[in-house]
Amino acid sequence: MKRFARYYSPYVIICVLLLAFPARIYADESASSGLKIPRFVSVVFDEANMRVGPGTQFPVKWQYRRAGMPLEVISEYDQWREVRDRDGVHGWMHVRLLTGTRYGLVTTTEPGIPMRRDPEAEGYILAFLRQDVIVKLNQCLGDWCGVSTTSLEGWVQRSHLWGIYPDEMLD
Asked: N or C: at which end does the chain have fewer Cβ atoms within 10 angstroms?
């Protein structure tokens, strides 16, 4: 009985829990930015590491290789943000890797969605945007978002974008 107590003391159990769930323990701290949670942000660099916990001592869970990739901030701890991507992958990223500049990710099961000259369902089609194209969000009002790519500016229906909430207005 003494042997069992020595190996499974409350201290050992607490240490095991701390190692098993580090991100959740840090997430319970108060938000440090004072900004609304959840909210969308975007990746700044073409290579940015997502970690298992809020610190460089935690292993890399995922690496994003596209600047502008939209992510949703779901928690904060100090200079770290717990983020989630469109596929539900979540982890921690340092604030230097993120920006408040808004980008959206085209989501569609069609071969492409129309980018229109005006925010009208029958407006002139400038181009068709494929799944996973990243667009800069310039303005979102009602069912339409004004977006831009490296060479075009136009309007896309909000329902085809991940990176903006259904009722969120963006000026």
From this structure: N
Q: In a 3-state reduction of DSSP, which class is residue 100?
A: coil
Cβ-proximal residues to 98 (8 Å cutoff; 6+ apart), any chain: 41, 42, 43, 44, 71, 73, 81, 83
Whether residue 15 is found in the same domain as residue 81: yes
**CATH code of 91's domain:** 2.30.30.40
Q: What is the pLDDT of residues 45-94, one digit of tens each?
A: 999 999 999 999 999 999 999 999 999 999 999 999 999 999 999 999 99
Q: What is the pTM of this model?
A: 0.79
Q: Both tokens of residue 22? A: 């580090």
What is the C-alpha to C-alpha distance for residues 134 and 132, in angstroms, rounded to an integer?
6
